[in-house]
Amino acid sequence: MLMAIERLRQVSDLCQEGKPMDESLANWFGGCLQDFLERRTESFEEAFGLPSCRGGVPWWKEERMRRRDEALRNLARGLSAGQPFGALAREIHVMSKRYGASAWRIDRDRADMPAAYEGTPRQHLWEAFRSGAPMPLGDRQLRNIIA
């Protein structure tokens, strides 16, 4: 699924820039589009290898959740210092709630992360919130993500 999304983004970028696609990307795109147009698949998503995953979650929500979860795991790695997962999850939960109630209210309208966040826990919080997946999360869900 992730490879298909990446390929579709490449096609989109090349089309918007008015640049040609390499042969393998063009063959993939043309074949998927032909499958869809000739109704060999039931949907555009199926034709391009983007079926619903994880209990029927649409591909675009799944992608957002993966980005969020990766940012949260990176945050946990930076904070861990041998803490049990439960304590770490509670700390991330509190940090997320504070960030969501304060800085995110301003940051959400920015196209780019503030430079001052680079290399700090705020970088990972910004990435998690920016993913578009639900944030903040509860302790139990955070434990499952960072474990």
Task: Calculate the terminal CA-CA distance, rounded to whole Å.
Answer: 24 Å
- Output the radius of gyration: 19 Å
Q: Residue-averaged pLDDT, rounded?
A: 91
The tally of strands reads: 0
Number of domains: 2
SS-based class: mainly alpha
Poorly predicted runs of 5 or more residues: none
Number of helices: 8
Q: Given the C-alpha coordinates, what overall shape results?
A: elongated
- Biggest beta sheet attributes: none
- The fraction of residues in strands falls at under 5%
The ordered string of helix (H) and strand (E) elements is: HHHHHHHH
Helical residue percent band: 55-70%
Task: Tell me about this structure.
The chain has helices spanning 2-17, 23-37, 44-47, 59-79, 85-101, 104-107, 121-130, 139-146. The two termini are 24 Å apart. It has 2 domains: 2-49, no CATH class; 61-146, no CATH class. It is elongated. By secondary structure, the chain is mainly alpha-helical. The protein contains 8 helices and no strands.
Labels describing this entry:
8 helices, 2 domains
Produce a short descriptive summary.
The chain has 147 residues and is mainly α. The protein has helices at residues 2-17, 23-37, 44-47, 59-79, 85-101, 104-107, 121-130, 139-146. The protein has two domains: 2-49, no CATH class; 61-146, no CATH class.
